């Protein structure tokens, strides 16, 4: 833990020129000290810096997708017997736990980077005099980010240390694990206050969180806690958003931060270092340069390690006939002369290989609608729940749900969430919070073991016999942290 918090304390001092827009965040190269916080501009730059680690959290080989999708029955890897150096994703997918896995460290560390930065802002901001509305906006963003990161940590790791103030000494960087209920109480308090302090979408700068973002996060927490009435109340207070008519447009980089977007991670194509690369990370491999160029239309380079987040036959078959989301989400590409599925929703025109302009969607208005459907159904308001469910289905070109009764509607909502949010890091957490992770993943594991070639294994290869035997619902805290913290 100490090395994470030390890096976080230093990292939060890496700020951004106030001449740059929020989306165009420059390189973090300049260190300062706590005396830096003297003006409104200082805090504006600091809150920009607090968002920055989220790009690393969602992008690249060790992105959040590995624990949110690859862990589930939605995606898998293309086994490459000639490359055994990039197999940490296999362990995540196959339920072979390793606390030294770099994927776990990436999630754990980047969340704490954000937390350390916002703690410094919240600790100092009330001591500096500037416009109250602007101050509340910055405080609201900081509180949202802290709540968001602790919600991410507690869902994936369970009990974690709860840092709420800057660490002034080395000893203060190591704290004991906090009780899960205490962590949730803090998340709710932060998200609730953030919802009061933040402006709405119409008045907030594009790309920043809003009162709607905070309320959606708060509702998500209540959904996980099965506090259905509180979730309903919060969800009904979310205003100013609407579904885009075309599902394809939701992910189009030319329509970033659109009317459906409640919170998305900001990326920018170009040479400044803020680009995304989801399309390339999720490519089936080995694959030739020419095969990639067929899809991208630009000069490419061959890729010869393992492909990750490849859509499984299970998710492909989960779409109903005529569901417009299927073609928008999943495409096909030839790799070494064989056609494989790939995640199409992050494939858009760009100019440079491994350098895309796609943002990552975290919360969309369709999730508010499906959360509302779930909250209502769990309170036996099934007919009302179907109204919200069918709004999402209608945009997908589907008829209204034929489900009747609470149990059928519950299953219909989870099925709808699976295809609506495919490859947006929702599936694993949905399996866990609905208490079906063990059943679903053991059955999935049996299918993979029985027919490994259906799951992209070369002839003669398959998963380890020990795979899918124990379906752990939480991940171990990275060993690099537990070895340094005397409390655990």
Automatic annotation (TrEMBL):
<keyword id="KW-0732">Signal</keyword>
<dbReference type="InterPro" id="IPR012944">
    <property type="entry name" value="SusD_RagB_dom"/>
</dbReference>
<keyword id="KW-0998">Cell outer membrane</keyword>
<dbReference type="InterPro" id="IPR011990">
    <property type="entry name" value="TPR-like_helical_dom_sf"/>
</dbReference>
<dbReference type="InterPro" id="IPR033985">
    <property type="entry name" value="SusD-like_N"/>
</dbReference>
<dbReference type="Pfam" id="PF14322">
    <property type="entry name" value="SusD-like_3"/>
</dbReference>
<keyword id="KW-0472">Membrane</keyword>
<dbReference type="GO" id="GO:0009279">
    <property type="term" value="C:cell outer membrane"/>
</dbReference>
<feature type="domain" description="RagB/SusD">
    <location>
        <begin position="340"/>
        <end position="486"/>
    </location>
</feature>
<dbReference type="Pfam" id="PF07980">
    <property type="entry name" value="SusD_RagB"/>
</dbReference>
<comment type="similarity">
    <text>Belongs to the SusD family.</text>
</comment>
<feature type="domain" description="SusD-like N-terminal">
    <location>
        <begin position="42"/>
        <end position="222"/>
    </location>
</feature>
<protein>
    <submittedName>
        <fullName>RagB/SusD family nutrient uptake outer membrane protein</fullName>
    </submittedName>
</protein>
